[in-house]
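In the previous lecture we treated proteins in isolation. Real proteins rarely work alone, and many bind small molecules. This record shows how such a complex is specified: first the sequence, then the SMILES for glutamine.
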Amino acid sequence: MPTRKEKRLPDHRPRVMILATGGTIAGSAASAAQSSYAPGQVGVDAMIEALPGMRSLARVRGEQVASVGSQDMTFAIMRRLAGRINTLLASDEINGVVVTHGTDTMEETAYFLNLTVHSKAPVVLTGAMRPFTAISADGPLNLYNAVAVAADPEAAGRGTLAVMNDRIHSAHSLTKSNTTAVETFISPINGLIGTVNYGRNEYFRHPFRRHTHQSEFSIDGVTDLPRVDILYACADMPADLIDCSVERGAKGIVVAGDGNGNMNAATIERAAQAAKKGVVIVRGSRVATGTVGRNVEIDDDHLGFIAADELNPPKARILLMLALLKNRTRRQIQKLFYTY
Ligand SMILES: NC(=O)CC[C@H](N)C(=O)O
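The predicted 3D structure, ligand included, written as tokens:
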């Protein structure tokens, strides 16, 4: 029996746009076995040229949106990406989009796009842990697999995805778990969306939370996002970090709490005062797995805090920034954390 892909005639191949932003996938080192390298050096056309086999999956074009290591990713670039993807997918000329991206903040851009792209068409982030020039570079196969998923109608309606190391992750669950290993990405909350093996895709589930075409968030006409800081909790945390953020103009603070979103008594007191003044305090966790629930050891109802539920601190920050674009009550903001 011929497979679905073998039956496709060449001129019926789906059209996939690769939007490149830099990262290790475009990284270059002086030699093939060298741990120091510069991310974001190889252009999108060179990456496409290096993978002629990709053309059997899709008609592929590329655009260079940025050339940064993703530690330098900005909301300005994310907004530009979201705008370009919305335009491309509204035109019906593109069936799916791949975004090449550094891995450091891939989960943040993936989650931002999950909330601000309004289309069912596949949007797939990918990257690499080894530079383009390395021995056993992982980028080419990741890119090949990402194109296979972006070209696949079965990937549609599953929100923004990330394809790394043969795995398909949802933007909601994806997180980086190792500083250097190729198997760095995990989906610890709701599990994997699927797997992809040399362009053969298998899906296990749809994301449980709202995304993309169901999202109520829009960045049309938005030039600035409100400042939201992340404060990392630890034993004997200095409580005046809260005051510093408020003084610098933060409209919201996500505390990467210890354990189940905890912080010491002094920080709770300063955070409660900030909350009374209108700053939105979200309790997340510095722990990589598990959720943060309301009113466990901290009385959120009384203190006016929000629980991050399934979102890690950087994603909680993004949801809060978008939520603060409109006047919303604490109750409404908490509901967003249960919804997205
Ligand atoms: N593996 C990577 O992509 C890390 C490289 C770089 N720090 C980035 O995030 O772009």
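Summary for your notes: The chain has ten helices and 14 strands. The mean pLDDT is 95.
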